[in-house]
Design goal:
Helix content: 40-55%
Distance between the termini: 28 Å
Number of strands: 11
Largest sheet: 5 strands, parallel
CATH class of the largest domain: Alpha Beta
CATH topology of the largest domain: Rossmann fold
Amino acid sequence: MRILLVEDDSQLLMQLDQLLQQAGFSVDLADDGEKAQYLLKEYTYDAVVLDLGIPKVDGISVLKFARENDIKTPVCILTARDTWEQKVLGLDAGADDYLTKPFHHQELLARVNALIRRSSGHASSELTCGPIQLHLTQQKVKIDDQELELTAYEYKVLEYLMLNRDKVISKTELTEHIYDQDFDLDSNVIEVFVGRLRKKIDPTNTLKPIETLRGRGYRLFSPA
């Protein structure tokens, strides 16, 4: 999952960047509103963590910009402004959640995970697809209740496919959502990860839950 983190406090920006990366997210950073607007227009994100008191363009204006440009990415506002009027202003501008500084890091992670889950139409943190079970919070995968060992990027690929089950996901889309903005989108590494995933989740090649659609991408579906 790919996150845009917008915060002008350099120390907090680095702390949250490290927190999110340790939790398995790919993170793009912006320390002012102009950069945030540029990144939102150029790249696709699974969630945005947005401070309101940022320079050049304030957070509310960034949020309005996103919604006016039909960018539907879920947004969690971070702010030291804890009055109810500010909360209403942020929610009316299109925010999906609101977290007041100071906050516990684990609460931020829980809220970001919940935003991503809900935006994909999932109420629970545990996703299932046939014998495959994926727990978003614990980042664990089981096949028939047996825990599976995956690399970080194998997990990210499976997680994105599970969140978008039965949808056709192009290689480019998959790459954009598991890597940061500097990654080479022409790389064939996604094919390698998908190949490894197939061998790990379906070693006997009987279920075949990941379908390749030539020229279109991949689709995860529940085996019959």
